[in-house]
Design goal:
With 277 residues, this protein is of the alpha/beta class. It has 2 domains: 130 residues, no CATH class; 133 residues, Rossmann fold, CATH 3.40.50.10140. It has 12 helices and 10 strands. Strands 4-1-3-2-5 form a 5-stranded antiparallel sheet, with helices on both faces. A 5-stranded parallel sheet has the order 7-6-8-9-10, with helices on both faces.
Length: 277
């Protein structure tokens, strides 16, 4: 056979989530015979700080359909074609101890190496997720705190009471990083929050920023999205001064001499019910 017909495809998969890749390889080994798919080799780097999994598929004289099928299966499994890596380089690194490697001629041999053993020295990600939990922190739908700059002190006084009750919050002073676009950060906060608390003072009603935040949440509600709208109305703001969509909802009218803990105590039941806390 003409050696010029030989082609190598090197794919990188997810070491920590191996099953989808193995399922794709099993289908390939079932569908394509050894005369065309001449080699299926696995290379695993078991360094816990840099785990790697690469697959080399060597073809002798494949048809166009076989290559198309292979690319489709591997891509759907989340693998990435590594055109910057060669088989010669992988073999060289294996001799130097970076990789463990095996060749797998069929499905049975392939699945023999799926779990920990000769090839893999580290368990997959599910093993750790089941035992220790790997969900990222801070991904719970937050409550957006919409307020004017002069009212930051009362908002910051309320925050510890809300977080103590288990409520995740979006607050501009804490959630916008230095150098980050303020406009984009606020827009993202509005779109990603599950609820909002409007702290409505006279300064709030005069603020174009606060008006834009109210418009953002009103747009979400009008488009059919489920968002809890809570309003804290300061003592010197009258009912008829409020925007119409705030007037139509029950809001917390603050008395003279209100306290941060009192605000939190009033709002927490509604927040807990909404988020199922």
């Amino acid at each position: 056979m003409d050696s010029s017909d030989h082609r190598d495809f090197i794919w990188q998969g997810d070491y920590g989530e191996r099953e989808p890749l193995f399922e794709a390889l099993a289908k390939l080994l079932d569908r394509q015979n050894a005369y065309e798919l001449g080699m299926c080799a696995l290379f695993a780097n078991n360094n816990p700080y840099n785990p790697e999994l690469l697959v080399v598929l060597g073809y002798e004289a494949p048809s166009t359909e076989q290559i198309t099928d292979m690319k489709s299966l591997m891509t759907d499994a989340g693998a990435r074609l590594r055109t910057d890596v060669t088989l010669k380089r992988l073999i060289n690194l294996t001799t130097r101890g970076r990789f463990n490697s095996v060749q797998v001629p069929d499905r049975q041999s392939l699945y023999h190496h799926l779990s920990m053993g000769q090839l893999f020295l580290l368990p997959d990600r599910k093993h750790f997720a089941d035992r220790f939990g790997v969900e990222p922190l801070g991904k719970a739908l937050p409550v957006f705190l919409s307020h004017s700059t002069p009212d930051k002190q009362i908002v910051e006084d309320v925050i510890p009471y809300l977080t103590r009750a288990g409520t995740a919050l979006w607050y501009d002073k804490l959630n916008i990083e230095y150098g980050q676009s303020i406009v984009k950060a606020v827009q993202d906060g509005i779109s990603e929050s599950g609820a909002v608390i409007f702290f409505i003072s006279r300064e709030f009603l005069a603020s174009s920023w606060c008006e834009n935040e109210m418009d953002g949440f009103l747009t979400r509600v009008c488009s059919g999205q489920k968002v809890l709208i809570l309003s804290v109305v300061f003592p010197d703001v009258e009912h008829d001064e409020l925007p119409m969509f705030i007037q139509q909802r029950k809001y917390l009218k603050l008395p003279i001499g209100y306290s941060a803990s009192g605000i939190s105590n009033e709002l927490n039941p509604a927040i807990r019910s909404w988020f199922g806390l």
